[in-house]
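Section handout, structural biology tutorial.
Before the tutorial, make sure you can parse a SMILES string by hand: atoms, branches in parentheses, ring closures as digits. In the record below the ligand is magnesium ion, and the chain has 265 residues. In the tutorial you will relate the predicted structure tokens back to the input. Do not try to memorize them.
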Amino acid sequence: MSEVVPKLRIKDLGITYVEQNGRRTEAVRDVSIDVMDKPGLGEIIVLLGPSGCGKSTILKSVAGLLRPTTGEILLDGKKIQSVGPDRGMVFQAYTSFGWLTVRENVEYGLRLRGVPKSERHERSKRYLKSVGLEEFADHYPKDLSGGMKQRVAIARTLINKPRVVLMDEPFGALDPYTRWEMQGLLLDASRTEDNTIVFVTHDVSEAVYLGDSVYVLSSRPARVLYRVDVPFFEVRDIGLKSSSEFRAIEKTLLEMLYAPVSQPA
Ligand SMILES: Nc1ncnc2c1ncn2[C@@H]1O[C@H](COP(=O)(O)OP(=O)(O)OP(=O)(O)O)[C@@H](O)[C@H]1O
Ligand SMILES: [Mg+2]
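Predicted structure of the complex:
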């Protein structure tokens, strides 16, 4: 019988940084995560862990920016060796190109791939509309608020239709209301794009709101302590976060994060 190949497989991943002076920092230890494909359905996997535990390190290695010290990462059964168009990353810092307009930023990946101008315009128009920035297409990033800049980053990543989108605390610097709006926008995008989003956060409420499943990580070196499947919330409105069902999952995750655990699951 042939084995079903996971869409994304992180297998026994270990990462130790070795600095020039020889100092070693073990950031990730024995992390294994399998994400199966759900055709026609977007999926959000959340990595939840304390600050400095190794979350960005895991994400960068999936992006192909960092080489695993031990273990391996496979996309559709193929080992990840470098960055590639099948993965897109949204960083915590605002990373738009300042010398390009919003539209040019969003079209950047398409231009690199030689997509003709008319098609680029048609597609960027659609993506700018979906993130509510149609009117700002000809502005430069410096004229935008933090939330708007992150919307540019999201549109710029999604327009390339990567199979896996890596998001490293993208809303961490936003005020609570904008953050809430951006989370809604991401959920909408996830439903329409049929991709897998690996979303890093240390915010428990954000993890429950966005995640289909949440992996709770230990403090450094990051290990997977628990995996929690979040039930599907039919209505995700402003009242959801104060509902008893939502609060109960938050409480479970908080206890997992902060209870003294000696043995990872
Ligand atoms: N380039 C590097 N060289 C050496 N050590 C590093 C490097 N990058 C990260 N580290 C160390 O690895 C550990 C994990 O860092 P990482 O950035 O992955 O944590 P994080 O979970 O993303 O934290 P935060 O929530 O604060 O963003 C930290 O102790 C950090 O100091
Ligand atoms: Mg980080």
